[in-house]
Amino acid sequence: MASEEPVEVVTCTAPVNIAVIKYWGKRDEELILPINSSLSVTLHQDQLKTTTTAAISRDFTEDRIWLNGREEDVGQPRLQACLREIRRLARKRRSDGHEEPLPLSLSYKVHVASVNNFPTAAGLASSAAGYACLAYTLARVYGVESDLSEVARRGSGSACRSLYGGFVEWQMGQRADGKDSVARQVAPESHWPELRVLILVVSTERKPTGSTAGMQTSVETSALLRFRAEALVPAHMAEMSRCVRERDFQAFGQLTMKDSNQFHATCLDTFPPISYLSDTSRRVIRLVHCFNAHHGRTKVAYTFDAGANAVIFTLDDTVAEFVAAVRHSFPPELNGDKFLKGLPVEPVPLSDELKAALGADPTPGGVKYIIATQVGPGPQVLDDPGAHLLGPDGLPKPAA
Amino acid sequence: MASEEPVEVVTCTAPVNIAVIKYWGKRDEELILPINSSLSVTLHQDQLKTTTTAAISRDFTEDRIWLNGREEDVGQPRLQACLREIRRLARKRRSDGHEEPLPLSLSYKVHVASVNNFPTAAGLASSAAGYACLAYTLARVYGVESDLSEVARRGSGSACRSLYGGFVEWQMGQRADGKDSVARQVAPESHWPELRVLILVVSTERKPTGSTAGMQTSVETSALLRFRAEALVPAHMAEMSRCVRERDFQAFGQLTMKDSNQFHATCLDTFPPISYLSDTSRRVIRLVHCFNAHHGRTKVAYTFDAGANAVIFTLDDTVAEFVAAVRHSFPPELNGDKFLKGLPVEPVPLSDELKAALGADPTPGGVKYIIATQVGPGPQVLDDPGAHLLGPDGLPKPAA
Hints:
The structure is a homodimer. By secondary structure, chain A is an alpha+beta fold.
């Protein structure tokens, strides 16, 4: 008689990651293989995380998924690719010399519920955290212990980088089957304790071009992107690894800014051109260069993904002054104490010299709010059954 | 006895030119030699021109120059380079086998007055027209008949392209002494009579980074610029020459847009990054792509120089409809009949389909005004003595 696995419910959390050497462009659309390697910083889950509950049961009649309380289409190709890949790994595991025959649970349907502790409308790439969490959670449900890069990648390329904490690289790989296109940790979250990350959520005028379509057009039309991928990124990756290893903030910061600008340059070299940077983004860029020039060295660095939000890297000794500089140049309009979320930041006055250097051309309301965070760990299993997002009936629990 | 030249007063006009394959970056700062070739369209002087009067007299005690009625510093290095170069050519001519000894006029001082028939504040690169006019006028004064590319170039690189009408290329040259870095006409102004140019003067928020400093920083910091110059521009130049020769507007338009975007991409890849495109510039870009998509082909093309103004290329059969589209998306705020200058454009209604395609998200006042013009001739001598900007005393005539 085939042994049956009890119904599994597993809840995990996974982090957001921010690339400092950017991924933009695929060499294989189906396997999600990139044209260049990338390197990211994992953010702390206290401020940003996805929580996912996955349950399997013979009583479920179909796979179902709920995102932030709303049922979504489980037939979505990326989701399907993820589910197929994890089930393939589960079958492979079972058939690798284990005595038990394939358990019935592999034929069960799965219910998944996932929530973010940050707003989707904020334009903070949640698909990386979401697919990493899905991969990690389903792996726990199915007892899969192998590398999950491919599962996460098939959902969203950069999701594989959210499988680890600290500093992570996604090695592009050379193989056509993508088996060597994997994420690995470059340094743990404890490596650079002084590093801080500020996410400046800016007012968005229009929904930006989606990154999947955008990067495809870039690969098809931008000669500068091809050159970047082949001739420039390998050196950027080597240098960034060194910067992280040696905690060289000046070099880390400069390379971060340059790589971000170069990525956006290739977007502008796309046809039709893609512009993710808004006028506010550009003002943040100017603020950073101004701040650094005032101090005579790189104390703050910006990076921008496929959207207008700015992600700022700095060290803990600079956070308060830089936040004050942001308030000066982008005076919050209404929300007073809701302007700063996450890690506490003490209010400090700006020196007159810095005020003079920043100029008097404020953009009220340009920055909606700031999330202050730091480097954090990789995915976690939650042992507390109260954390499950699905009830015993396999349906989402009512929101608390 | 040395023969004396009579006091010379010469007045000339010279055009503005707009590059469709962009010059950005020098390989020699002193001789103004570019890192890549460039190709431009000369605009008609009925709409945009510089008028320059040069007078030499033994009674003048020093070189002096007035620009738009205001005396400027004649010691400015670019101006000095121009004057030295034209005088060198004048001495060389005299010494090339002519019988007369060098005339005293070569030792006379020169007075120069120059005016534009378009506002400097409009950000329409007037230095090309200005230095081309200066070179051309001084050549007439000194009887210089040789190639003036170097004289104009030493003032402002792109000025050499304003020495010819129609379609002009500035061949980058290979020699270190720059003798082969010259402009030549690719096709005359009569070659493509249907071609029209619309300059969309946009509201400027801030003075953009000057192009001399900007391109220097780009050369020093942008790997993408180096690649563009070495690997991409030669093919762009060959293709653009073909497009002009064959009057292939679709290909001309697409390459014009791509080269403009690529130039701006290298500006973004500069460190610190340079952004010449404003939010309004980007809206114009979207308008053009939308307009072309609606029509199913490239009917309109944009190009942007080191500033936010858009220069639009189209054919005469499309001008009215595109101007109507601009009015729809950028409703003029106050100036009613001052919104459209230059060649007359008949008001036409927009089709409902086009209105729908353009969307309903207007930017009132985003475009301050439009100058409608066409391809035009090179520099001209004005024979009418009433046109002189300097009086018999060598000082600027009072403004009329």
